[in-house]
């Protein structure tokens, strides 16, 4: 059977120090323990490793042949131990994250900045995808977890945790009057040029279903596929965007403001999507902790 790391450690130390006594002191064990470890290797391979005299130990030719390999194995094991400690202490590693494009644009830059300032050695593989692709990417193992406006679809293999929520809002230009509204009703904005997501998207379906309950229907002036397109059109005065309030990246669109819509109030969530049967790495867990803290403050 192959020698243990402890046996190899004893062998290398006795070879380097030329003394069982010194090797025992280095490992903080008894001399008899070191002698036993060396004897176990010799008996296992039927090789004599040291010639013993009353004053010293002398490595045999077999010992000199074996010592290079023993040192290489110990160096590799020590390197592995150091790497494992770094991973546990989040001083190294890599995390792969799938994020819906809107969340990546509006919410993630601040989270990334906070995480990188604390753990600059950890690399991040970011996959910005459409919300409907989050589940596929995570379940295929291409990302440890996903962040986005996803619903709990009742799939047992999937864990969905809500991180924050905000109401759908009318997003418009700050003109001295619009930003003074604390809340707007859907009826109040129906006469405006509205910019919405296309039919079939989850946001649009949620709006259409909620308004249909009171016999109303949305008649937008613009239908787009990307949140950034809607916001860019609004910034140029094309109309009001109907989007979750948290989807407005204020640094990118400082002239815009989100006013919550009511009657009815429709909420959209930002959730964490992960595989129920897979644990997350220490780095991923820390990233999620920072995300929860920042999103909680933003939602509040």
From TrEMBL:
Residues 3-60 form the HTH lysR-type domain. One of its GO terms (cellular component) is cytosol. The keyword Transcription applies. One of its GO terms (molecular function) is DNA-binding transcription factor activity. Keywords: DNA-binding, Transcription, Transcription regulation. SUPFAM superfamilies: Periplasmic binding protein-like II, Winged helix' DNA-binding domain. Transmembrane segments: none annotated. Signal peptide: none annotated. InterPro entries: HTH-type_LysR_regulators, LysR_HTH_N, LysR_subst-bd, WH-like_DNA-bd_sf, WH_DNA-bd_sf. CDD domains: PBP2_LTTR_like_4 (cd08440). It holds the Pfam family HTH_1. PANTHER family: HTH-TYPE TRANSCRIPTIONAL REGULATOR YBHD, NITROGEN ASSIMILATION TRANSCRIPTIONAL ACTIVATOR-RELATED. NodD regulates the expression of the nodABCFE genes which encode other nodulation proteins. NodD is also a negative regulator of its own expression. Binds flavonoids as inducers. Belongs to the LysR transcriptional regulatory family. This is Putative LysR-family transcriptional regulator.
């Amino acid at each position: 059977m192959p020698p243990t790391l402890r046996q190899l450690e004893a062998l290398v130390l006795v070879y380097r120090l030329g003394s069982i006594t010194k090797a025992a002191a280095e490992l903080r064990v008894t001399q008899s323990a070191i002698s036993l470890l060396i004897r176990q290797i010799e008996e296992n391979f039927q090789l004599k490793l040291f010639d013993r005299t009353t004053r010293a130990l002398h490595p045999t030719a077999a010992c000199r042949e074996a010592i290079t390999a023993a040192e290489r194995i110990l160096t590799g094991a020590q390197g592995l131990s150091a790497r494992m400690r770094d991973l546990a202490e989040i001083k190294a590693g890599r995390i792969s994250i799938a994020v819906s494009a809107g969340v990546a644009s509006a919410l993630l830059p601040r989270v990334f900045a906070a995480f990188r300032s604390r753990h600059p050695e950890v690399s991040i593989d970011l996959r910005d995808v459409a919300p409907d692709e989050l589940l596929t990417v995570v379940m295929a193992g291409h990302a440890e977890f996903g962040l986005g406006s996803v619903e709990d679809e009742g799939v047992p293999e999937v864990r969905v945790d809500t991180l924050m929520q905000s109401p759908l809002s009318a997003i418009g230009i700050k003109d001295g009057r619009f930003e003074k509204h604390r809340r707007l009703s859907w009826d109040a904005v129906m006469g405006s040029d509205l910019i919405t997501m296309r039919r079939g998207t989850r946001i649009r379906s949620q709006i259409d279903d909620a308004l249909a309950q009171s016999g109303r229907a949305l008649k937008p002036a613009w239908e787009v596929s990307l949140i950034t397109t809607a916001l860019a059109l609004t910034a140029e005065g094309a109309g009001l965007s109907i989007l979750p309030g948290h989807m407005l990246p204020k640094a990118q669109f400082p002239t815009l403001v989100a006013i919550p819509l009511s009657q009815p109030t429709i909420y959209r969530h930002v959730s964490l999507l992960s595989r129920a049967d897979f644990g997350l790495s220490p780095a991923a867990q820390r990233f999620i902790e920072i995300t929860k803290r920042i999103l909680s403050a933003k939602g509040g």
